[in-house]
Amino acid sequence: MACRLHALCFDAHDPLRLARFWAGVLDWELADDPRDGIALLPSDDTGFRIRFLPSQAPKIGQNQMHFDLTSKSLEGQQETVARALELGARHLDIGQGPEEEHVVLADPEGNEFCVIEPGNNFLAECGFVGALACDGSQEVGYFWSKALGWPLVWDQDQETAIRSPHGGPKITWGGPPLEPKTGKYRLHFDLAPPADGDQQAEVERLIALGATRVDIGQGEVDWVVMADPDGHEFCVLTPR
């Protein structure tokens, strides 16, 4: 049985402030979990929580992952943008042209996200959190499909996307060229083995799929830090 995507984790200079921002944007519940620290619990079918972890590392370049938030109407898109700006977001220029209909924003710590225009066919079946868009190769899309047991819902021109059989957002990879890696990524996945599973067995399964164990200075911890075939870090938690 495949592991479960437990959380998307943000490294944050001010975890509580960033959690409150995203709680306001997404309308998710702010929770205090003994293992997760500051976390948001989804109010929809997203299927994973968001964790905010303390870090003083500076943000360098664009993140390798960002949210694509959907809109049902132009007014809805404008309302999402206005709410995000009121909560502390700002407009961001990443080279998008004036013809682009989506709006690019950055949260209070500079993490990029997009508010997608209404009528986007690729995200038509998805909820408000339409996609987690990632910089990554076709190979890494295949890896995550097998790692999570999520089917491919797009595989064309070296671009891939997967989605949980239970619905929720898509996870997409844009294919080459990939941005150069400049250090530990600010966003990463936490994976949870099946409740009756074994952490070490899951680590070995992921290595067989192409992952590697990595040392980011984590020391003696009960989770295992790994990297996917593109070098994106993720953690395998202990079952509970």
Automatic annotation (TrEMBL):
Highest classification ranks of the organism: Bacteria, Bacillati, Actinomycetota, Actinomycetes, Streptosporangiales
Protein name: Putative enzyme related to lactoylglutathione lyase
PROSITE patterns the UniProt entry points to: VOC (PS51819)
Keywords: Lyase
Domain VOC as annotated: residue spans: 125-239
Molecular-function GO terms, alphabetical: lyase activity
